[in-house]
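User: Please fill in residues for this 423-position structure.
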């Protein structure tokens, strides 16, 4: 069969690698792809905003399955456009992708269906929000309603900071239209865990857990980023936590979406905080996490294409997921200055050493090929994933490998997975 992947980051490289392992797949395309994906797939340059042209491409090339990676096209309804043309596509429709694209919607859903999450209020005017802040407990968390590249969350230590935050979101529109509405919620503490789950609208099959490192600098300092590294599994995600989440979070979320007429087909990414009172939902995403996909997919034993098809066909209850009994750590190599200003177009060296290594995966996040050279092409450049018998071994291998890859403004965190040293 012919498969098309939409997107061009590390997540899509991990998906492309896993899909290319499937005996069902004869030909792989990726739009727009990157230099790494280009070794597995034919990369085509079409704007991800132009859903009609994307669907025309899929029709002309007789694509059997399209997999959508990033949040923006999902939120804008790419799946609806493909389905209207009779194309087979994996991802939630616009109505279901709202679980990520509107935090107000997601919070109200959790409240209505008793899914554990931080207590909150929603606001559509800065006046009302500021009024609410007068009697709030601190620290407090402000969230812009819409998609904001993972940056629309502000944690404010006191009233003055929170007032500034509300004004930045709702009046100065720091995150654009995403700030037309906002959520103000209780500040929670505890280890954070991400669980990605396959969904077919009725059934939900959670994958192994992962843990992200969102801040740019060591010790969780610096600005929020898309993610600077991950590991899987999370030692905090015990069997007891898993049982609780399946019963009170995962299945209730899928049931709630169905009850609302928004059947969720795709990947539900549940961001959890393991608080003293039990696991609570921090956020939902409607897609694979990046870099979470880069540690979870290399550990997945199943044929990914088979599982995605079961999601589309509503047969997920027939699938049993298997994960290798090992661990994976991914260290993101970024351009110095990310997530703000950084240089692009710098040559990357040292990649070919990993071409034939089975326990290493160098997933390209932002690279481009120029003749025989591979150049940096964005903030997060590469994800260096290593597998090991346990997290410590995987971490030491990932850092060794990361040290062998060079480009001029290379930057990485040095403490990915360090939390596990104390367990
Ligand atoms: P989100 O995009 O909603 O996952 O938020 C980004 C990050 O902000 C999360 O990964 C948490 O580290 C932090 N965060 C979000 N909500 C809360 C909360 N209610 N309490 C404490 N930290 C939070
Ligand atoms: N790494 C977090 C995300 O993909 O949203």
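Assistant: Residues filled in for all 423 positions:
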């Amino acid at each position: 069969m012919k498969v098309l992947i939409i997107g061009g980051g590390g997540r899509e490289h991990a998906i492309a690698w896993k899909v290319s392992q499937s005996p069902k797949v004869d030909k792989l395309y990726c739009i727009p792809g990157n230099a790494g994906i280009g070794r597995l797939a034919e990369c085509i340059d079409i704007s991800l905003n132009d859903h009609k042209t994307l669907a025309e491409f899929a029709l002309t090339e007789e694509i059997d399955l399209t997999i959508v990676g990033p949040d923006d096209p999902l939120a804008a309804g790419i799946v609806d456009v493909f389905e209207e043309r009779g194309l087979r596509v994996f991802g939630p429709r616009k109505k279901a992708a709202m679980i990520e694209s509107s935090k107000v919607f997601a919070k109200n859903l959790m409240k209505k269906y008793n899914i554990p999450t931080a207590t909150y209020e929603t606001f559509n005017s800065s006046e009302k929000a500021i009024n609410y802040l007068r009697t709030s407990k601190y620290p407090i968390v402000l969230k812009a309603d819409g998609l904001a590249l993972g940056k629309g969350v502000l944690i404010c230590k006191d009233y003055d900071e929170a007032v500034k935050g509300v004004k930045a979101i709702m009046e100065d529109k720091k995150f654009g239209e995403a700030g037309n509405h906002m959520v103000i919620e209780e500040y929670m503490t505890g280890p954070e865990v991400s669980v990605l789950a396959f969904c077919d609208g009725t059934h939900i099959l959670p994958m192994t857990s992962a843990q992200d490192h969102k801040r740019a600098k060591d010790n969780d300092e610096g600005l929020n980023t898309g993610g600077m590294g991950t590991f899987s599994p999370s030692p905090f995600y015990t069997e007891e936590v898993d049982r609780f989440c399946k019963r009170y979070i995962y299945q209730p979320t899928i049931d709630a979406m169905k009850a609302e007429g928004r059947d969720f087909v795709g990947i539900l990414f549940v961001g959890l905080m393991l608080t003293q009172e039990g696991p609570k939902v921090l956020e939902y995403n409607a897609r694979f996490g990046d870099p979470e996909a880069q540690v979870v997919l290399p550990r997945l034993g199943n044929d990914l294409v088979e599982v995605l098809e079961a999601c589309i066909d509503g047969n997920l209850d027939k699938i049993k997921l298997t994960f290798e009994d090992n661990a994976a750590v991914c260290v993101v190599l970024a351009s110095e200055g990310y997530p703000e200003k950084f240089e692009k177009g710098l040559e990357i060296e040292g990649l070919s050493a990993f071409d034939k290594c089975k326990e290493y995966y160098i997933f390209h996040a932002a690279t481009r090929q120029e003749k025989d050279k591979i150049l940096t092409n964005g903030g997060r450049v590469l994800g260096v994933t290593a597998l090991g018998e346990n997290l410590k071994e995987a971490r030491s291998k990932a850092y060794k490998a990361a040290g062998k890859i060079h480009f001029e403004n290379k930057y990485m965190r040095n403490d990915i997975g360090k939390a596990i040293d104390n367990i």
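For context: The chain has four domains: 2-93, 125-180, 192-318, 327-422.
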